[in-house]
Design a protein that fits this description.
Helix content: 55-70%
Shape: globular
Order of helices and strands: HHHHEEHH
CATH class: Mainly Alpha
Number of helices: 6
Distance between the termini: 28 Å
CATH topology: Arc Repressor Mutant, subunit A
Length: 145
């Protein structure tokens, strides 16, 4: 590979940043101006509803302390509540409020819109091939220590 060829990791990171920028702009335009890109990780699929804060921290590759700081802000801004875990009175799980469900809806709809745009640009078959290739890479990455 020549030095003129961009690294695949650089291209993936650039696309990730563009996706975050677009979704954040949509969220802010829809009445969520205090949200930042880091808040979006809480709402990404499969979403926080019913998850424990420690599980969400692991899923997003954050420390428990950093996640608790983010959750405190989202709770204060009425996006979610922490409630006692149904089977374990000592633990807590997260429950989205109506405001939090709105954020989740906007992110899902925005993601589907981007996929439709990519399909128009690349064709459905190529988008599905890309999805499969990324799934395969993700499976390997998930299995890595």
């Amino acid at each position: 590979m020549s030095m003129d060829t961009p690294l695949l990791t650089t291209l993936v990171r650039s696309l990730h940043l563009d996706i975050r920028r677009q979704l954040l702009a949509e969220l802010q335009a829809a009445g969520h101006p205090t949200l930042t890109a880091v808040h979006m990780y809480v709402f990404q699929s499969p979403g926080p509803d019913g998850a424990r804060p420690t599980e969400l921290a692991a899923r997003t590759n954050m420390t428990k302390q950093a996640m608790n700081h983010i959750l405190a802000r989202l709770e204060r801004d009425k996006y979610l509540d922490r409630v006692p875990a149904p089977l374990d009175g000592r633990g807590t799980v997260l429950r989205l409020t109506e405001r939090g469900r709105d954020v989740e809806r906007i992110m899902v709809e925005g993601s589907y819109r981007m996929e439709r745009d990519w399909a128009k640009l690349l064709g459905r078959d190529r988008v599905e091939e890309l999805r499969q290739a990324i799934r395969e890479l993700d499976a390997v990455a998930t299995d890595a220590p």
